[in-house]
Each structure stands twice: as C-alpha cells, then as structure tokens.
Request: fold
Amino acid sequence: MALNAFEKFAIEIAFAAGAIIRRGISEQKSYSTKGTDIDLVTEYDKEVHDYLTGKILSTFPNHRTWSEESAIGERAHGFFDEGYVWHVDPIDGTINFVHGYPFFAVSLALYKENQPLVGVIYDPVHGECFSAIAGNGARLLSGGESQSISVSDASKLVDSIVATGFPYDRHQNPDDNLAQTAAFLKKVRGLRRSGSAAIDLAYVALGRLDGYWEFRINSWDVAAGVLLITEAGGTVTLTGGQAFQLRPQISLVASNGRIHAPMLDVLESVKRST
Ligand code: LIP
Reply:
C-alpha cells in the first residue's frame, strides 16, 4: 500500500477516535490507576484503544500494534524490529482529560522494521490534525485546510520556548527531571509543561515550540511526533546526543535543529554537576 494511503487511513481512524474522546470531555470520568497512583486510565482510553487496534488489525491482518493499553505480554524483545508495527496512544494526556484540562490527543504511527513511515497526532479539542509521511513532509489539517508545516527559526535558547514532561514515578524516584528543568528555566525565554508529549512534539514541528525534552517516556507517546519533527526540518536525538531509535522507553531531545546542541549542553551540564 502507498504511504499516502496509510496516512489517509490513520487520519480517518484518528478523527473517529477523536469523536469518542469528545463524547467524554464534559462527562465525569471514572478511572483506575496502573503502575503508580498518578498513572491513570479511563474507560475512554480503553474504548479508543479497542477501536483503533480493532480497525488496524482488521484492515491490516499482518500488522501488529504496540499500544499504551495493550497486554504486557507483548513486550517481547525485538517486537519493534520486525515487520509493520502501529504505535498507538489512545489518549496522550490522560490526566488532562480526566481533569478537563484541554491538552490531550490521539497519537498513532506506523513503523516498518522500526523505521517511521507515517505519523498522525489529532487534538480533538482544538480540531488540529498533524500528519507526516517519511520523505514527504509534515502537514497540519485544520478547519478543512491542509498546510505544510516547518519548525521555528529560533537560534538561541534565550529566544526560545521549550517544553518537557515528568515521569509517573516522580513521587518515588529521584531521577525526576527537576534539576534539568531548573537549569533550562535559567536559559530560555519560556518553559511549558502541557501534559501531552504528543502535542508538545507536534508544536515543535509547527514552530509553536522550539524544543522539547523528556526522560523515560513511552514509545507510544513519541512515535508519531518524532516523524513530524524530522519531516518538518527539525532534529531528534537521545538525551546524550546519540541517534534516535524507538524503544519501549526512551529519553529524547527534539528541536528545530538550531537550538539542539545548546539543549544537549544544558542536559550535559546537569549530568556533570550531579
Ligand atoms: C503522558 C505524556 C507526558 C508525560 C507523562 C505521560 P499519557 O502520556 O504525554 O508528556 O510527562 O508522564 O507519559 O500517559 O497521558 O499517555
């Protein structure tokens, strides 16, 4: 199948998933916790997960899915490296969704032998659908209009807005990104924490943010956004500067490319001082 057909399919199911999410926005949502007491899952996460994985596997029986709500048993080593895998976050920003804080999105990406082919992030609150095809640029679909998107041209941290997030085990784990966040606060124009990595990454691709970093984040949170950014002219690496490769948990830096080295330097300066 041509990549634009995969993109069209992904956009269609992302929009349908967005309709499920919108149904729940104003409702009082019941939820349970998983892992830690601040890692939430609602019935909407599960309904969107079932919808997306059902559509993918019924349409592409030889593909596999790797989703936030999937069975732990699937986390076999090498799962990413073979064939077609769809990385799915039914609701990225679940805490925001539960609290009615309007930053959450559907994020899905198709990878083949762990190389990105198509990425889609749909924000049902603001009606913005970001998509990218490997080698064919990144786009924003909003209000029925589609436009090519590209990263910002900020070249100094002091002229930049950057975003980050924090791991769910931060109440227990001293490796909590606080020292790094404090260091950036002393260097940048602005720092944001939306609570949705997918939206943060989409905003870097669109130029609303100039950079993003996060430690120990799950692959489904970032699989689509990293393709958006590289197709929009930006740069994505691991936090040590190594080439990016998708893994179940990952620590990454994403930027417009111009402030990438200074971002890595800030993280390295904290590493040296701890
Ligand atoms: C969230 C990310 C956020 C990160 C949270 C969590 P979820 O994804 O979007 O950036 O800081 O720890 O991973 O769990 O809402 O899909």
User: Anything to note?
Assistant: Residues 68, 89, 92-94, 165-168, 195-197, 214, 217-218, 221 surround L-MYO-inositol-1-phosphate (CB under 6 Å). Residues 16 and 66 are 19 Å apart (CA to CA). The helical segments are 3-25, 43-59, 94-99, 178-185, 197-206, 219-231, 260-273.
